[in-house]
From TrEMBL:
Enzyme class per UniProt: transferase
Protein name, per record: histidine kinase
Native source organism of the sequence: Streptomyces alanosinicus
Catalytic reaction(s) noted: ATP + protein L-histidine = ADP + protein N-phospho-L-histidine
Histidine kinase/HSP90-like ATPase domain span: 389-479
EC numbers on record: 2.7.13.3
Listed transmembrane segments: 78-96, 108-128, 135-153, 165-182, 189-212, 218-235
Annotated keywords: ATP-binding, Kinase, Membrane, Nucleotide-binding, Phosphoprotein, Transferase, Transmembrane, Transmembrane helix, Two-component regulatory system
Length: 494
């Protein structure tokens, strides 16, 4: 669907290029207007945007900017075909039946009646693509037909024909005004209706005729109805388009905010790990001189420098950590409906040590106390992981169990942990829920946080439904330091 005519956009091209004064040749300067041009003023930069803006506004007013009411009108082929057929048969009916109607009412010959009716039919077809020129053509043809009929009414003494708007001309102009109102802005429709009313007043009230039935007031009332219907349909379409655009923007902003919140949460946790290592470095640098007999001055100086740098880095880390925690001391991602399985950053001691694999058993016990039947299977040696890997593994299992509590109450859960030479493999699978699932108050950030943690370490997370109607979350986290991670992909809803 194309953009709405309410918000026309200029086309990029040569008109939008900005040419600096230095790039203008002497021949180009000679072929200008002949007046002196201030070398510090860029005329292209001034006139280009203005010209594009005027052209865009003119195109919108003429109904030439694509919109939802522009051809092909719909994404459905059958609806497009139906629209074209209705308009085509209406134009054909006006051209055929209108010729006979004009001949009978106004006494036109075929050479006069046929072109008058054909012009109205052509205006209807033209209104599909160029509504303003089509309206001008229809109104001009209607005025010419009325003036030609005026002579016949006075000389041939016809039996009170409908004038100045005969039935076929009136129907054709109604269709054109309707298509016009669907495409142009409301003030353009009002201007067209006012011009039609003025022409009707001049022909019927100013020029006048003898022995006729006036149709001006009735015609204007019907034209007003067609204009109101068109404006209402167009306004409804514009409102729906703006709502869809706003919904899309809101969803993108929500996804971006979710991503930033998850990264901030991960950063707060990793700051604790880094701060611990920096503290260890500082202490070791302070103790090292006492472990060596007669240490040299160079050694003492280097160790003192290491200690001072570590303390400075630790101070900066604490400042950053304080800022991150002060922004959100109570995590919004906390699982309100998951007793015993709290999210990171919650609880009475937000500065407590970060969890690791050794605390998984306690996490599983809390989950069992919340009403889930949890079975754990573990293989391999659980040692040799960095604190960041252990923290991420714990958080992934914790979030997976929280999702089971939230979305599959009463389900059976199996947690598989495999300690492989290259890293740790996690799998949390659950069966079909045993009772109806209540509406979840969660914020839907769970899978996003899992993927962010795994990507940070060079691992991966996969979540998918199982064949038995449950859900399976698998993850692999490498043991060693991850390479530089690629650019993060757009967030996907959990």
């Amino acid at each position: 669907m194309s953009a709405d005519p309410e918000n026309p956009t200029g086309r990029s091209g040569d008109a939008g290029r900005v040419t600096s004064p230095a790039s203008r040749t002497s021949s180009e300067a000679e072929h200008d207007t002949g007046n002196e041009v201030d070398p510090g003023v860029d005329t292209d930069a001034e006139t280009g945007p203005v010209a594009r803006s005027r052209a865009a506004r003119l195109g919108a007013w003429l109904g030439e900017v694509p919109s939802s009411q522009s051809p092909p009108f719909s994404k459905y082929r059958w609806l497009r075909l139906l629209t074209y057929l209705v308009v085509f048969y209406l134009a054909l009916g006006i051209a055929g039946a209108g010729t006979e109607e004009l001949s009978d009412d106004y006494g036109f010959t075929l050479a006069v009646a046929l072109p008058s009716a054909l012009l109205q039919g052509l205006a209807i077809l033209l209104a599909l693509w160029r509504p303003v020129p089509a309206w001008a053509l229809s109104l001009a043809a209607a005025v010419a037909t009325a003036l030609l009929a005026r002579q016949n009414i006075a000389t041939m003494r016809l039996s009170s024909p409908n004038w100045p708007w005969s039935p076929p001309v009136l129907i054709a102009h109604m269709a054109v005004i309707l298509l016009l109102a669907l495409r142009v802005r409301p003030r353009g429709t009002v201007a067209a209706f006012a011009a039609t009313a003025l022409a009707t007043f001049v022909v019927e009230g100013g020029i006048g005729a003898l022995y006729y039935s006036p149709t001006g007031p009735a015609a204007l009332a019907l034209f007003a109805v067609a204009a109101v219907i068109g404006v209402a349909l167009r306004s409804r379409s514009v409102a729906r388009t703006e709502l869809v655009q706003q919904t899309t923007i809101t969803a993108e902003e929500r996804a971006r905010r979710t991503l930033l919140e998850e990264r901030s949460r991960i950063a707060r946790e990793l700051h604790d790990v880094v701060a611990h290592h920096m503290s260890v470095i500082s202490i070791q640098a302070q103790v090292a001189p006492h472990l060596v007999e007669n240490p040299s001055d160079e050694l003492k100086e280097n160790l003192t420098g290491i200690r001072n740098n570590a303390l400075e880095a630790l101070t900066e880390l604490r400042r950053v950590l304080g800022v991150l925690r002060s922004e959100s001391p109570d995590e919004p991602e906390a699982v309100e409906d998951s007793p015993g399985v709290s999210a990171p950053g919650t609880g009475a001691a937000p500065h407590a040590p970060q969890p690791n694999l050794a605390r998984l058993d306690s996490l599983l016990e809390n989950t069992r106390a919340a009403g889930l039947d949890v079975v754990k299977a573990e293989e391999g040696d659980p040692h040799g992981y960095s604190p960041g890997v252990e923290l991420s593994a714990y958080r992934i299992v914790q979030e997976a169990l929280s999702n089971v509590l939230r979305h599959a109450p009463g389900a059976k859960v199996r947690v598989d942990i495999a300690h492989l030479p290259g890293g740790i493999y996690l799998s949390v699978s659950n069966s079909r829920p045993s009772r109806p699932v209540p509406p979840s108050p969660g914020s839907g950030h769970g899978l996003l946080g899992m993927r962010e943690r795994a990507a940070m370490l060079g691992g991966q997370v996969e979540a998918k439904p199982s064949r038995t109607g449950g859900f399976v979350v698998t993850a692999f986290l490498p043991r060693g330091a991850a390479p530089e991670p690629p650019e993060p992909s757009p967030p996907s809803p959990s």
